[in-house]
Amino acid sequence: MTASPLKPVQIIGGGIAGLSLGLALRRAGVSVTLIEAGDYPRHRVCGEFITGLDTGTIDRLGLAPILADAQHHREVSWFLRDRLLRRQMLPDPALALSRHVLDQRLANAFVSAGGELRTHTRADLEQTPDGRVFATGRRPARSDWIGLKCHAYGLALKSELEFHLGDNAYVGLCVVEEDRVNVSGLFRQRPGFGLTRETALLTYLRASGLADLAHRLSEVEIDPASFSAVAGLGFSKPTARADRLVIGDTFAMIPPFTGNGMAMAFQSAECALDPLLAWSRGEADWLVTLRKVNDRLRRRFRRRLASAKTLHPFLFNPQGQRWLAVVNRAGLLPMRALYNVLH
Ligand SMILES: Cc1cc2nc3c(=O)[nH]c(=O)nc-3n(C[C@H](O)[C@H](O)[C@H](O)COP(=O)(O)OP(=O)(O)OC[C@H]3O[C@@H](n4cnc5c(N)ncnc54)[C@H](O)[C@@H]3O)c2cc1C
């Protein structure tokens, strides 16, 4: 008896979720075509540190060589409007690597494993044939949050990770490669600012009460190609649609302060892997596969998404930050417990 051939999978979107799923499927012998609107390498708005990525997921997706030289950061300093609020040690190190390097490495590994990668190709998202996975990143939302980022050379940090809370803003800094520091923030959009990609970050830092940080940044050289911006960011409820298989931010975007979005993207690829392999081998039909992946995603991420959504306003708006500062001064912030519910 000859085994029937494996059914091919098509993935739309070559970010963390799509590329890591494509790589794992290829290594299991499945034909994979991945359609990506952009190209590599590319800068993306992202804090570029990964927290809560477990070794189980790293092993299952074969990520160890890709993350081997990532920086390990454990020490975090929290600042409220340029004043040190608290230092803490993370229970596990955060892995830091620029998206410029990480996405390119994943794309190279996918192609080396025999995957077909079509860049500069935008897929029609209305078509939902069996075997198609949507990993197209965040769903555009009506929101007034914007994300801004750049890479600064030789910026001296006050700890491995700096986290700054400002007026309707938070910003994270960490070393990503050699002397390259990623500076990335989420800001409530301010109407009437005439900005360019190059001036937006400094202008927003100053307007958010983060003048010291803006000053430190204005003193060092910035990689001009790294200035990036993204608008229309929404942190909505998970959408597991009955008619399509979604992973990564397309399933749900967790607020960036958690540093867990990339871990979730990898973990959602892991959640989809076995059901897709069963479908590819002809052991399950497509609707059963969709339902199984959706159940896995909901179970794995429900608690952390709900916790992050509850905490987000406390970090972001001035009233919440004042409350946070008072609770912190009283020594009542349960950092370890918060970390556990967010990862
Ligand atoms: C300000 C900010 C800071 C963040 N900081 C961190 C952090 O420190 N740590 C962390 O872990 N996470 C962070 N995140 C979140 C993290 O960036 C995302 O969770 C992660 O990128 C999700 O990966 P993904 O593969 O789902 O989507 P993406 O990485 O967005 O990839 C989606 C891909 O789909 C492609 N695409 C879209 N539409 C189409 C189409 N029609 N056809 C073809 N291709 C298409 C896009 O070009 C893109 O390459 C941050 C996010 C923001 C906004």
What gross morphology would you assign?
globular
What CATH calls the topology of the largest domain is FAD/NAD(P)-binding domain
What class do helices, strands and sheet pairing give? alpha/beta
In total, how many domains does the architecture comprise?
A: 2
- Output the number of helix runs: 10
Helix coverage percent: 25-40%
Query: Which residues form runs of ≥5 with pLDDT under 50?
Result: none
Q: Which kinds of small molecule does this entry bind, naming each only once?
A: flavin-adenine dinucleotide
Radius of gyration: 20 Å
At the first level of CATH, the class of the largest domain is Alpha Beta
Order of strands in the sheet with most strands: 3-5-4-9-10-11-8-12
Can you say what the CATH homologous superfamily of the largest domain is? FAD/NAD(P)-binding domain
End-to-end Cα distance: 46 Å
Mean pLDDT: 92
What is the ordering of alpha helices and beta strands? EHEEHHEEHEEEEEEHHEEHHHH
The CATH architecture of the largest domain comes to 3-Layer(bba) Sandwich
Please summarize what this structure is.
This protein is of the alpha/beta class and 343 residues long. Helix content is 37%, strand content 23%.
Secondary structure blueprint with pairings:
Blueprint: E1 9-12, H1 16-27, E2 32-35, E3 49-50, H2 55-61, H3 64-67, E4 71-80, E5 83-96, H4 99-112, E6 116-118, E7 132-134, E8 145-153, E9 161-166, E10 169-177, E11 180-188, H5 197-207, H6 211-218, E12 228-231, E13 245-246, H7 261-280, H8 286-316, H9 318-329, H10 335-342
Parallel strand pairs: 1-2, 1-7, 2-6, 4-9, 7-13
Antiparallel strand pairs: 3-5, 4-5, 8-11, 8-12, 9-10, 10-11
